[in-house]
Amino acid sequence: MNLFELKIQSLDREHLSAILELDKACFGGLWSREGYQRELDSPNSEIQGLFSQKTGEKLLGMGCFWSILEEAHITILAIDSQYHRQGMGAALLYSLIKTARDRHLERATLEVRASNQAAIALYEKFGFKRAGTRRRYYQDNGEDALILWLGGIHKPEFSETLTNWESIVLQGLRKSGWQLAVTS
């Protein structure tokens, strides 16, 4: 089977139109152009994108976290709906957590819609635990958000966890005909 190559890279201002297009498709326009510009310009924000030459370098997915003290607060994890269930969300989540560890952060947190069972299953597969609920968090429909938490990403023993996750991510992508490009 031929595998198509995926690459994950940090996004910058040249990607702004693609970011807005994916945001609109996935979230109906969650953040504004100015909001994303602030994220791209902030040293405390990390926005990564997922691309493939197979799709003409179209932005297939993106993830973002804010560095807040010792915490990576994951604010966005989005995959183009055409590419759901192909391992791309896991690849981006792995990359975000690895980047947070590389930045010497100690834990990761996020909010997720209580009804988003696919996302919750992904986060729990990666060791996130429920830490609480934000009642009526989502403005569009008043839905609750679950607060999920992953601690200890800075500890030496977490290296083994990352290695295991990398293997799981690569296997999942391979099953769907993808491989992750090696970046230096």
Short characterization:
The protein is an alpha+beta fold. It has helices at residues 16-27, 33-41, 88-102, 117-125, 158-175, and strands at 4-10, 45-52, 61-68, 71-79, 107-113, 129-134, 145-151, 178-180. It has one domain (4-180): Aminopeptidase.
Total of DSSP H or I helical runs spanning 4+ residues = 5
CATH C-level class is Alpha Beta
CATH homologous superfamily (4th level) name: Gcn5-related N-acetyltransferase (GNAT)
- H-E order: EHHEEEHEHEEHE
Description:
With 184 residues, the protein is an alpha+beta fold. It has 5 helices and 8 strands; from the N terminus they run E-H-H-E-E-E-H-E-H-E-E-H-E. It has a single domain (4-180), classed as Gcn5-related N-acetyltransferase (GNAT) (Aminopeptidase), CATH 3.40.630.30. Strands 6-7-5-4-3-2-1-8 form an 8-stranded mixed beta sheet, sandwiched between helices. A hairpin with a 2-residue loop joins strand 3 and strand 4 (71-79). The longest helix has 18 residues, at 158-175. The protein is globular, with a radius of gyration of 16 Å. The mean pLDDT is 93.
Summarize the helices and strands and which ones pair or pack:
Blueprint: E1 4-10, H1 16-27, H2 33-41, E2 45-52, E3 61-68, E4 71-79, H3 88-102, E5 107-113, H4 117-125, E6 129-134, E7 145-151, H5 158-175, E8 178-180
Parallel strand pairs: 1-8, 4-5
Antiparallel strand pairs: 1-2, 2-3, 3-4, 5-7, 6-7
Helix pairs in contact: 3-5
Structural key phrases:
184 residues, alpha+beta, Aminopeptidase, eight-stranded mixed β-sheet
